[in-house]
């Protein structure tokens, strides 16, 4: 076994020692795990931003179209229509804005803003 000027231990065939290879593999796995975790957080943040925007657009549509007719039936009707019109996954849209229908209805009847309602729904 010899040590080259780089300080890396090599065998007579000038290949890194098994210990150096193991350390390199462990370092690569640690870095890969960190990157995977970081990308997962980024995706979660992007998904959260999208959900917030979907919620606000849908509730703005509802608020605009219900006018003074803020009955439960009219609000629910426009909640469904809003998710049909938004170019986003209908099921996810409904899940976001109908997470708590009584809260949404009450908030719209009290003339709360879409941003405030979406914050209460934890979409933003």
Summarize the structure.
This protein has 124 residues and is mainly alpha-helical.
Oligomer designation: single chain
Distance between the termini: 60 Å
The count of β-strands is 2
Biggest β-sheet strands, sense, barrel: 2 strands, antiparallel
Layout of secondary structure:
Layout: E1 2-3, E2 9-10, H1 18-66, H2 72-85, H3 90-97, H4 101-109, H5 114-120
Antiparallel strand pairs: 1-2
Question: Any overview of this molecule?
Answer:
With 124 residues, the chain is mainly alpha-helical. The model is unreliable at 32-44 (pLDDT under 50). It has a two-stranded antiparallel ribbon. It has helices at residues 18-66, 72-85, 90-97, 101-109, 114-120, and strands spanning 2-3, 9-10. It is built from five helices and two strands, in the order ββααααα. Helix 1 (18-66) crosses helix 3.
Characteristic terms for this protein:
124 residues, mainly alpha, 5 helices, 3% strand
């Amino acid at each position: 076994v010899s040590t080259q000027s780089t300080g890396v231990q090599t065998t007579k065939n000038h290949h890194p020692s098994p210990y150096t290879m193991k350390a390199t593999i462990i370092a690569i796995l640690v870095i890969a795990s960190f990157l995977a975790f970081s990308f997962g957080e980024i995706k979660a943040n992007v998904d959260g931003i999208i959900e917030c925007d979907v919620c606000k657009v849908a509730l703005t549509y509802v608020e605009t179209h219900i006018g003074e007719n803020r009955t439960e039936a009219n609000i629910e009707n426009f909640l469904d229509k809003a998710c049909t019109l938004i170019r986003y996954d209908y099921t996810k849209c409904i899940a976001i804005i109908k997470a708590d229908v009584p809260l949404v209805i009450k908030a719209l009847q009290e003339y709360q803003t879409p941003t405030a309602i979406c914050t209460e729904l934890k979409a933003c």
